[in-house]
Design a protein that fits this description.
This protein is α/β, with parallel strands linked by helices. The protein folds into two domains: 237 residues, Type I PLP-dependent aspartate aminotransferase-like (Major domain) (Aspartate Aminotransferase, domain 2, 3-Layer(aba) Sandwich); 117 residues, Aspartate Aminotransferase, domain 1 (Alpha-Beta Complex), CATH 3.90.1150.10. Helix content is 39%, strand content 16%. It has an eight-stranded mixed beta sheet, sandwiched between helices. Strands 12-13-15 form a three-stranded antiparallel beta sheet, with no helix packed on it. α2 packs parallel to α8 and α3 packs across α7. It is globular, with a radius of gyration of 20 Å. Bound molecules: pyridoxal-5'-phosphate. The site of pyridoxal-5'-phosphate has 15 residues, from α3 and α4.
Length: 364
């Protein structure tokens, strides 16, 4: 079987280094928010190019805490997409705000900024821009809309660690950048973890209070906070993994080039690369006409695939009453029926990719 994602191969690659770091951590008597977390926050800020980073428990919390740090909550609206991980939307609701979901671009499957402009009301406080699949949204246009309408730009970078827009890393363009370090993400821990980036000192300080009961000093809450801490073992592992992130992203890019060069374009429409943006290929997504048939065929060929995402958030039972849509989401609804994600991860061998491509091209 060719796996769709395989984090255990990565663990194997770095196992010695990881075990050494875990052993070192076990002896420190500090297991949560200790020196490894501080080091990871420093490493991550340096990598992204922001002044500050705050480690949190996961990517969903990163978004909720970001919104709360900006005083966005009850009565406020946050614009984002329905074509995303449900986490993007669920976090907005957890912060108390109303998600306003808009349609996407047909070529890139990302937020359509012309739809953002139309969705802005006097309740709109922010846009959560999801850099889906590994590349940037149309940032220049979106920044201009945000500036003109005086609303904040928050980036959901959970699928694009290391990608750039015009030479600047994603997560350093908006007021805040939110990242998940779930095991299969480009920068993944061996459990749950997340991190937030910002250049604003006041926001940074507030996020640190929010992640731990509102404490500035122990046992006294300055504000109503959360428990969303990151532990030392995950941070120690991430301090190792971040050293190899660029190399691993390059491997993903090489695999993507094979798909782009050799897939039969008559059968598969590849999601386009945006100009001015590098792509770190968290996912490699193509559109197909006969998806059900293709999925059955690939199953027989023992090639695992994914669908990101099969159900738009606005059509899911758990969320449809909690969100608002603006305009028809027809591009979202159309594409969720024809997309498939092909295997892509740094350890996937070139030989295997060629085999996948041959099988795909033989599909009728
Ligand atoms: C993974 C992901 C999240 C959520 O991260 P968790 O760590 O699972 O909470 C949020 N947004 C996007 C776009 C994601 O891919």
């Amino acid at each position: 079987m060719i796996a769709f994602a395989n984090p255990s191969l990565k663990i194997k690659k770095y196992k010695k280094e990881i075990i050494r770091a875990v052993n070192r951590t076990l002896e420190t008597n500090s297991y949560i928010l200790g020196p490894e977390v501080k080091k990871f926050e420093k490493n991550f800020s340096k990598y992204i190019g922001t002044k500050y980073s705050v480690g949190v428990a996961n990517g969903t919390d990163a978004i909720e805490i970001s919104l709360r740090s900006l005083n966005i909550g009850i009565g406020d609206e946050v614009i984002t997409v329905s074509h995303t991980a449900v986490a993007s939307v669920s976090a907005i609701i957890s912060a108390g705000a109303k998600p306003v979901l808009v349609d996407i671009e047909n070529e890139y499957l990302q937020i359509d900024i012309s739809k953002v402009a139309k969705a802005i009301t006097n309740k709109t406080k922010a846009v959560l821009a999801v850099h889906l699949y590994g590349q940037s949204v149309e940032l220049d246009g979106l920044k201009k809309i945000c500036k003109d309408k005086k609303i904040l730009l928050i980036e959901d970078v959970s699928q694009a660690h290391g990608a750039k827009y015009k030479e600047k890393k994603l997560g350093s363009h908006g007021i805040i950048g939110c990242f998940s370090c779930y095991p299969t993400k480009n920068l993944g821990a061996l459990g749950d973890a997340g991190i937030i980036t910002t250049n604003n000192k006041k926001i940074y300080k507030k996020m640190k209070l929010l992640r731990e009961y509102g404490w500035k000093t122990k046992f006294y809450s300055e504000i109503h906070g959360r428990n969303s801490r990151i532990d030392e073992i995950q941070a120690a592992i991430l301090n190792i993994k971040i050293k190899y992130l660029d190399k691993e992203n390059k491997n993903r890019e090489d695999i993507a080039s094979l798909y782009k060069n050799f897939l039969d374009k008559k059968k598969f429409t590849i999601v386009k690369n945006r100009q001015n943006s590098s792509h770190v290929y968290h996912l490699f997504v193509v559109k197909v006409k006969k998806r059900k048939k293709l999925l059955d065929y690939l199953k027989k060929k023992k090639i695992a695939t994914g669908i990101h995402y099969p159900y738009p958030v606005h059509l899911q039972k758990g969320y449809k009453k909690l969100i608002k849509t603006n305009g028809a989401l027809s591009i979202t609804e159309k594409n969720c029926k024809n997309i498939i994600s092909l295997p892509i991860y740094p350890e996937l061998k070139k030989k295997t990719v060629i085999k996948i491509i041959q099988n795909l091209n033989n599909f009728n």
